[in-house]
Amino acid sequence: MNPPVVIGLLLDWLLGDPLNRFHPTAWMGGLIAAADRIRPYGRPALEFIAGIGLTLLGTALTGMIGWVLTEWFDSFPAPLGWLASAVILKASVSLRGLDRAAGEVQIALESRNLAEARRKLSRHLVSRETALLAESQAAGAAVESVAENASDGVVAPMFFFAVGGLPAALAYRFVNTADSMLGYRDPPREWYGKFPARLDDLLNFIPSRLTGLLLTAAAFLARENGPRAWRIMRRDARLAASPNAGVPTSAMAGALGARLEKAGHYSLGGEFPSPSAGEIRRARRLLQIASILAATFLFPLPAAGWWK
Q1: Partner of 212 for a Cys bridge, out of 225, 245, 251, 279, CB 3.0 to 4.6 A?
Q2: Chain centroid to CA 220: how far?
Q3: Is the dihedral of CA 265, 268, 273, 279 positive or negative?
């Protein structure tokens, strides 16, 4: 068991996200937004180079901050050092925020308030247009977001902390934040965001597949359909546009027996019925179990500092 990982996940569940003025991810977003104002526009080659520079600079800066913090925390007695590392790691993990956001969509759908469900979905969970989503589509988008963000927001930060302590966890969070802000195929961001998007794909290759396995294991423990989660994950993971997102999403589709699709793009578990609010509740339970499994069994490495 890795004490900072377990403590960090517990702190996140109990306390949720800090206010933006204290949140490292918000600071990273501010840095990315500031760089966006001075980047070259309309020149693809220069935009691409600027995107590489921003990503490497931000990754190096956040990794250095993580290293300085680790050196400082190593001077503390072990329990205090674990707690200090866990507090910083907690800011990279978003279990409670993800669960709460999905729960708000679930409650809105259960109350037959589709407009509110669409608003909550757009505000907290997805970047796609939600104004015209049907009830089943809104539920499906929420379930997909739970599965995808189980990797990006929970498993990946813990994985990188286990691999390289706070420097790796914070550097990963910067790349992931840059991808979430810049990694779109529209004219303003096509070239500027290409490097952070591809680097994020690379960094999430292992965590996304671990998340698929964790969701499959969680399906067994939650008395969902574990064998079907494994089968659909192996069959449909490649159908999604993202090389990583399809893995946990298809595992979730199989576990719940629900079709998760984006019109005109992909359909995971296509033989299953469309999801409803009930599937959001079940997906949240799988998220919680998978997160506990990750923190307690998947990363049973010594406390931060073992890797130096």
Answers
A1: 251
A2: 22
A3: negative
Q: Over the chain, what HEC string results?
A: CCHHHHHHHHHHHHHCCCCHHHCHHHHHHHHHHHHHHHCCCCCHHHHHHHHHHHHHHHHHHHHHHHHHHHHHHCCCCHHHHHHHHHHHHHCCCCHHHHHHHHHHHHHHHHCCCHHHHHHHHHHHCCCCCCCCCCHHHHHHHHHHHHHHHHHHHHHHHHHHHHHHHHHHHHHHHHHHHHHHHHCCCCCCCCCCCHHHHHHHHHHCHHHHHHHHHHHHHHHHHCCCCHHHHHHHHHHHHHHCCCCCCHHHHHHHHHHHCCCEEECCCEEECCCCCCCCHHHHHHHHHHHHHHHHHHHHHHCCCCCCCCCC
Q: Which of 268, 284, 212 is nearest to 235 (CA)?
A: 268
Two tokens, residue 258: 């629900």
The per-residue pLDDT for 39 is 83
For residue range 75-124, list pLDDT tens digits in order.
888 788 889 888 888 888 889 999 999 999 999 999 999 999 999 988 88
Whole-number CA gyration radius for the chain:
19
pLDDT tens digits along 53-83: 999 999 999 999 999 999 998 888 878 888 9
2-23 exposure pattern, b = at least 16 Cβ within 10 A, e = fewer: bbbbbbbbebbbeeebeeeeee
Q: Output the pLDDT for position 304.
A: 42
What is the overall mean pLDDT for the chain? 89
Check: CB of residue 249 under 8 Å from CB of residue 240. Answer: yes
